[in-house]
Amino acid sequence: MEYTTKLMYQSNYWYNDGLKKANIRDMSGAVTSLRRSLQYNRENIAARNLLGLVYYGRGDVVEALVEWILSKNFQAEDNIADDFIGRIQEVPGELESINQAVKLFNQSIELAGQNGEDLAIIQLKKAIAAHPSYVKAHQLLALLYIQTEQFSAARKELRTAHKLDTTDEITLRYMHEITQIRKSRPSRARDRGKGEEARQEQTVTYNIGNETIIQPASSVFKENSGLHTFLNIAVGVLVGAAVMWFLIMPAVSVGRQKKLNERVVSFSDRIATQEAQISALKTELEEYRANSEESEDLKAQSASTQESYEIVLDIARHVSAEDMSDKEMLEQILKVSPDSLGKAGKKRYDEVADALFPRMCEKLYKTAKDEFDARDYDGAISSLEKVVKMNEGYQDGNALLLLAQTFEKKGEQDKANIRYQRLVQKYKGKEASQKAQKALDGQNDSKGTKEKKGQSGQDDN
After folding, report:
1. Number of structural domains, the chain?
2. What is the CATH number of the domain that holds 23?
């Protein structure tokens, strides 16, 4: 109990720390603190909801939805996460805009990797227009501006990113880089001055009356004027082709894309929600893995929980696909410890159990009775233990009674008595409970008779 109290205290401490940082828009620091809070108590609803808000403030909407869905799994009623999710869904097209911004961001990364900085900048501007609080898009756009020496535009993007998250390491590193470039620019200016002097040396200056005439020292320019004209025409043709490709052709394809986009939009909300739910389950599983590092006991528990989650998800797929036998699915699902699962995992486990357990209990119970009648006690015990694990009170306790009787027939009286006592304590009023009590009474009577015989024998001696 004391250990649990310490965990709760630590979780609340880091939540308060994250709240302070979020209030001053130290989003990166808030994420770190809130993650620590959830490591101590993954069911800290306030911390999880605040973490979702912090992600949302940085423009990471998918990550925010994951945290809010997990929060709803832990507390379905009276949870402000419902309001947060509802506000996103109420705004028409917001999820589609966010989805489009993410796609444009990913495309810009690929273009930048292929030396297509100009196209990447265009894509990023569209992403920011669709999703203005997307910190990662502002950072990447600033980096491309730095690379193409558009330092004023880079500073503007970094100031926007800094307002959204005042302590993001990437933003601060880029701002430092621009500062260093600004310090080195005076030396570049001196170099440009020397170049200007050199150009002046290549000109001839003389006066005619009150006018000063400057002309080139040689006639190289005149000699190459025809070549220059040809080059200007070629550049004009290339610019015209570029305008055609990048401005006119996209407009032509808009009509064809419009119908496709309308169909995509109709599915985008559902896709985003499903992806968030899958991410929520994966996040819950990853939290078990992370928490396992705290101690050896937690490590063993986490390994069991991880295996249980994987089995439940695998069996759920087989139940839907109907591509595995009931016997094989039962062997796997009986390895799961339901109490170790979170709410989302427990819900999926119950769905699988409701679909599989009733028909398997009926089948195995019938098999066990046949095995008992044939004196195959080992087989009967194996079948009945599975039935009892699925449903201890199956057939009003008769399955548990038959298991006790089988152990008794096999000569394992202690195991039989444990089942008899379980029936008497938990299933009072049932016929199986009365039979169990009668079996226990019979043993006591038999034991008392033996003790009396032993005492009379000693008296005769």
Report:
1. 1
2. 1.25.40.10
DSSP string, 77-109: SS-THHHHHHHHHHSTTHHHHHHHHHHHHHHHH
Residues 6+ apart with CB under 8 A from 128: 101, 134, 137, 138, 141
Please check whether residue 168 lies inside any domain of the structure: no
- In a domain, residue 310? The reply is no
Single out the residue of 234, 256, 257, 253 nearest to residue 245, CA to CA: 253
- The SS3 of residue 321 is helix
Q: Give the 3-state secondary structure percentages of the chain, helix then strand then coil, rounded to 5.
A: 85, 5, 15
Q: What's at 260, amino acid-wise?
A: L
Task: Kindly list the distances between the CA atom of residue 396 and the CA atoms of 418, 424, 429, in Å, as whole numbers in the listed order.
Answer: 18, 12, 10
Structure-block tokens of residue 461? 């001696």
pTM of the model: 0.41
Task: Give the contacts of 314 (CB within 8 A, at least 6 positions apart).
Answer: 332
pLDDT per position as a tens digit, 294-323? 545 555 555 566 677 778 777 777 777 777
Asked if the structure places residue 10 within a domain, the reply is: yes
Judge whether 432 and 401 are in contact, CB under 8 Å.
Answer: yes
What is the full DSSP assignment across 258-312?
HHHHHHHHHHHHHHHHHHHHHHHHHHHHHHHHHHGGG-HHHHHHHHHHHHHHHHH
pLDDT band for position 384 (50/70/90)? Answer: very high
Range of the domain at 71: 2-90
Average pLDDT over the chain, rounded to an integer: 76
H/E run at residue 216: strand 211-216
Q: Does residue 119 form part of some domain?
A: no
Q: Are 15 and 47 in contact (CB under 8 A)?
A: yes
Buried b (16+ CB within 10 A) or exposed e, 227-236: eeeeeeeeee
Taking CA atoms, 106 is separated from 110, 154, 156, 211, 275, in Å, by 7, 20, 22, 60, 17
